[in-house]
Write a structure and sequence with these properties.
There is one protein chain. The chain is mainly α and about 525 residues long. It has 20 helices and 5 strands. A 3-stranded antiparallel β-sheet has the order 1-2-3, with no helix packed on it. Strands 4-5 form a two-stranded antiparallel sheet. Helix 4 runs antiparallel to helix 11 and helix 13 packs antiparallel against helix 18. It is globular and about 70 Å long.
Length: about 525
């Protein structure tokens, strides 16, 4: 007699006492990252055969692939797809076991954020890769996006680490892709070396966790850490802490933040925008998965640690941003980099709060990440527009932007006010209130006070930059310094106004419209980001 047991993503058959280990793959569940990876290979091969004048087609192919991957999230909206699961024979209990890939609501929201961020980055890049190798750029961007889309659906440590490295390794090359640029090469080297060290520490922690529990699946780890023998407790705690170090680096949490300013300044602006949004989403989604799903039994270890990291990160980021000189070369990008570090501190607060109350606060982190992604990509889009006529990209270069490009200036002011949490950037205020409430509800009053002080500090430099946009423009200098000379096809400061590239204009418009819509209905963000990891 033969019976069949059907579970999501698994086909098992039992004939008497024999059970098959054959699995079926839910191709729909894994379609978004697979499509992105497949398009990356298509772009790489097509680049070998396309003549130079046809290379721009690769950018449109890239965008089409990202749009297709986003569309494939719609059939998965119920959040009930899992695949690559342990079979009944594997578990030895007669019941199906944990799955390595789960397309639940949390994974879908993060995948939408990652793919949307990569799409806007691609749109922004269409007008900003004039001096970059097109084929390699699009291939690396898609490769990184495929790993970033895989990570939030990973439910075992092996898949999690592989996805993290697939997202990170192409990013190193993207940072250093400006050939012959010393600053770009230096940024890539710093990014690579610090990331490798963090990954090595994380892998050591993963090995400790595996030695303690005998499994890599997150839900299985959580169950076995509830009953760790006393002689292995220290090993388990060390594994938890070391695993968190790797993700703390990816999120740019202090003291693992030191790579951020130089990396953002040395990278092409679209790549800096990508790292600030997609790279951060990757780090935080991985951090949420390992803490809330795998390590709830050690919440007394990672909860206080993350609370301290949150306070330290937001303080260092805001104080460093406050000290940026408006006349320093690339000070605009450097300020956005330090602002990104400070925002990472705010994003850590709800995760720390989850250790003291429940995982419902994770929705606050996801909601804040969605808001931050929209407005930060918009700010980088305006920075890319200004950099075409002012390659130095100083904050002082934005003086009088309203007089020359009023819509771009208004959009930039709106993005900065959203980051500051001031009207009309209601969505930014709403996101900060939800994070603040998470700290208070969890009994972390001291962390709420630190956050309030940092929000006030941030107001100064955000409002100062906003004010620069509307000041009377100064007379342009006769000639820019040699090291900051504009490319041949860029406009010269003070010359006749040149038309902004259509892709950059569209990127600014899309992010501005999204920010305005979310400010009109900020509760939509929290409702969309309301996720349950259990």
């Amino acid at each position: 007699m033969t019976t069949a047991v059907v579970t999501p993503g698994v086909v098992t058959t039992a004939a008497d006492s024999t059970t098959s280990l054959v699995q079926s793959i839910d191709w729909l569940a894994i379609a978004p990252p697979v499509v992105v990876a497949a398009v990356a290979l298509v772009v790489l091969v097509a680049d070998l055969f396309l003549p130079a004048e046809r290379k721009p087609l690769l950018g449109w192919v890239t965008m089409a692939g990202l749009v297709a991957a986003l569309a494939l999230l719609v059939p998965l909206r119920d959040g009930d797809h899992s695949t690559f699961c342990l079979t009944a024979a594997t578990t030895g209990t007669g019941a199906p076991g944990a799955c390595s890939y789960t397309a639940d609501h949390f994974a879908l929201v993060i995948q939408a954020l990652v793919l949307g961020g990569a799409l806007l980055t691609a749109l922004l890049s269409l007008g900003d890769i004039r001096r970059l190798p097109a084929g390699e750029f699009w291939f690396l961007l898609l490769s990184s996006a495929s790993g970033a889309a895989l990570l939030p659906a990973a439910r075992d440590l092996a898949t999690l680490v592989v996805a993290l490295e697939v997202a990170s390794l192409p990013a190193f090359a993207l940072v250093g892709i400006k050939r012959g640029d010393r600053r770009s090469s230096e940024a890539a080297l710093k990014f690579f070396l610090s990331s490798v060290v963090a990954t090595a520490v994380m892998l050591l922690g993963v090995s400790f966790v595996y030695a303690t529990t005998g499994t890599l699946h997150l839900t299985e780890i959580a169950a076995r850490l509830d009953d760790v023998p006393g002689r292995l407790d220290t090993l388990a705690q060390a594994g938890v802490v070391l695993t968190l170090v790797g993700f703390a680096f990816k999120t740019a949490a202090a003291p693992f933040h030191f790579w951020v300013p130089d990396t953002y300044v040395g990278a092409p602006l679209p790549v800096a925008a990508y790292l600030s949004v997609v790279g951060k989403a990757v780090g935080f989604s991985g951090l949420i998965l390992v803490t809330v799903i795998a390590f709830p039994a050690y919440a007394d270890v990672w909860g206080p640690a993350l609370a301290v990291l949150a306070a330290l990160t937001m303080t260092i980021g805001n104080v460093a941003a406050l000290r940026q000189s408006a006349t320093r070369v690339r000070s605009a990008v450097r300020l956005l980099a330090w602002s990104s570090v400070a925002q990472a501190g705010y994003l850590l607060v709800p995760i720390a709060a989850a250790a003291y109350s429940s995982d419902e606060h994770i929705g606050s982190t996801v909601a804040y990440a969605l808001m931050y992604a929209v407005v930060n990509l918009g700010a980088f889009a305006v920075a890319a527009l200004v950099a075409r006529t002012n390659p130095g990209n100083r904050i002082s270069d934005y003086r009088g932007l309203y007089a020359t490009r009023p819509l771009a200036a208004l959009a930039m002011a709106f993005f900065l006010l959203c980051l500051a949490g001031l009207p009309p950037g209601i969505v930014g205020l709403f996101a900060k209130v939800t994070v603040f409430s998470a700290a208070v509800d969890a009994g972390l009053g001291w962390l709420a006070v630190v956050m309030a002080v940092n929000v006030v500090i941030a107001l100064y430099y955000y409002l100062q930059w906003t004010g620069v946009l509307f000041r009377t423009p100064e007379e342009a200098p006769a000639q820019a310094p040699a090291e900051e000379a504009a490319p041949a096809d860029a406009a010269v400061p003070g010359s006749v106004k040149h038309r902004a590239p259509t892709p950059v204009t569209l990127a600014i418009a899309l992010t501005a419209v999204a920010g305005i819509v979310l400010s009109g209905a900020p509760q939509t963000v929290l409702r969309f980001a309301a996720v349950n990891l259990f």
